[in-house]
Amino acid sequence: MQSQKTMDTLVGLLLLAAIISLTILAFKVSGLTSFFKPEGYKVTVLFDDIGQLKVRAPVKIGGVKIGDVVNINLDPTTYRAVVTLYIDKRVNDIPDDSSVSILTAGLLGDNYIEITPMYSKTYLKDGSEVQDSHSAMILEKLIGQLLFKIGNTGNGDKK
């Protein structure tokens, strides 16, 4: 009888450990927690239009993820989007004259931030603000402009 009780206890502990492990894995994969957040620094960028950019969107250089978008706010005086980026401290040599763009993964994919390093010898640090930003290309706006131009071609000669 003692052997059965020991076996039941051991199975219960293993089941509990599995549930805890799966919960931690789920939080780590989803990015919904900061338990495992690497050390880094915050940089802000102002955009005229961020499209569908969301918090937790990746920040990349050359296609390699180096951080995340941690906050998106509206500047009440300029009405521009203020995007706060959290960049891994291992990437501490990004020139401060770098260009930041909002791109789309594929034709209809999610938006992400792409940093294009430039040539300055001074680097971004915690609290820096990037000056050169390029807003998102909104597919709906581009299609609307194309349709407007197509609709207006050839109408100048009609009276």
Spans where pLDDT lies below 50 across 5 or more residues? none
What is the domain tally?
Answer: 2
Structural class estimated from helices and strands:
alpha/beta
Report the C-alpha radius of gyration, rounded: 24 Å
Count the strands? 8
* Strand line-up across the major sheet: 7-1-4-3-2-6-5-8
Figure out the total of helices.
2
Shape assignment: elongated
CA(first)-CA(last) distance: 102 Å
Largest sheet: 8 strands, mixed
- Strand proportion, as a percent range, falls in 25-35%
Helix content: 25-40%
Mean pLDDT over all positions: 87
Give the H and E element order.
Answer: HEEEEEEEEH
Question: Would you kindly provide a written description of the structure presented here, covering whatever features stand out?
Answer:
The chain has an 8-stranded mixed sheet, with no helix packed on it. The longest helix has 29 residues, at 2-30. Strand 3 (64-74) and strand 4 (81-88) form a beta hairpin. The protein has helices at 2-30, 139-152; strands at 40-47, 58-61, 64-74, 81-88, 99-104, 111-116, 128-130, 132-134. It starts with a helix and ends in a 7-residue tail after the last helix. The chain has 159 residues and is α/β, with parallel strands linked by helices. The model has no long low-confidence stretch (mean pLDDT 87). The chain has 2 domains: 1-36; 40-145, no CATH class.
